[in-house]
Specification:
Number of helices: 10
Order of helices and strands: EHEHEHEHEEHHEHEHEHH
Oligomer: single chain
Radius of gyration: 16 Å
Structural class: alpha/beta
Strand content: 15-25%
CATH architecture: 3-Layer(aba) Sandwich
Shape: globular
CATH topology: Rossmann fold
Number of domains: 1
Helix content: 25-40%
Distance between the termini: 12 Å
Largest sheet: 6 strands, parallel
CATH class: Alpha Beta
């Protein structure tokens, strides 16, 4: 049976995959999602979270090889997990996610983009350990094409994002590069510019890239279509 493990992006939790999981299961796949450390229901203190801890949490959740799916910032932790234990991962699927470059942090890559449309919606904590999304701006930035109920559901669950994992340069080698990869671009993305998503995958084979005409949150905007593309990746 095809097995998927779904990893959320900044300020989110396993809850964001609520509509994708049943779509995958109804197609006969095994599908799970986890909270990364300090996210969702995970009690890890924000100040204790590292990129390494993210990767270890992912690998601890894998008993047999999975298709590992990462949304947005989760491109970094799924890649770090693949570097540590490529034998646990059948393939990586980046969903409008950062595709890391060895030696750079996610912060470095965000700054290297053509523009930073999310910047004015980020509110840094007083202690500098984390940031949150401005609740007045998240619909426009993240959920502009999502149903009203889904936006309310998400806004009630968004939490703080530890900064250290995103400020940590990633080390990648042939171990990571040996894992097959696919990318799903989101063409109405107001968080990671679609042209930057194209830049990050410019040298990828065309048959490893798919697209959805939606926002940065395809799991709420087009969950069935997203599930179909994930199943295609499994094929």
């Amino acid at each position: 049976m095809t097995a998927f493990l779904l990893i959320h992006g900044s300020c989110h939790g396993a809850w964001c995959w609520r509509d994708v999981l049943p779509a995958l299961r109804n197609a006969g796949a095994e599908a799970r999602a986890i909270d990364l450390p300090s996210h969702g229901d995970d009690p890890t203190p924000l100040a204790d979270v590292t990129l390494d801890l993210y990767a270890d949490a992912i690998l601890d959740a894998i008993d047999e090889p999975v298709i590992l799916v990462g949304h947005s910032m989760a491109g970094f932790p799924i890649s770090a997990a693949a570097e540590k234990a490529p034998e646990k991962i059948r393939s990586l699927v980046y969903v409008c996610a950062y595709v890391p470059v060895a030696g750079l942090s996610l912060v470095d890559m965000r700054r290297a983009g053509p523009r930073q449309p999310l910047l004015d919606a980020i509110v840094k904590s007083e202690d500098g350990v984390s940031f949150s999304f401005d609740p007045e701006k998240v619909r426009d930035k993240l959920f502009h094409d999502c149903p009203h109920e889904a936006v309310a559901y998400a806004k009630a669950r968004l939490g703080p994002q530890p900064i250290l994992p995103q400020a940590t340069p990633i080390a990648l080698s042939e171990r990571y590069r040996s894992v097959p990869k696919r990318y799903i671009r989101c063409l109405q993305d107001r968080t990671i510019p679609p042209d930057y998503q194209a830049t990050m995958t410019a040298d990828w084979p065309a048959d490893r890239i798919d697209a959805l005409n939606c926002s940065h949150s395809p799991f709420l905007a087009q969950p069935e279509a997203l599930a179909a593309l994930l199943l295609r990746a499994a094929g």
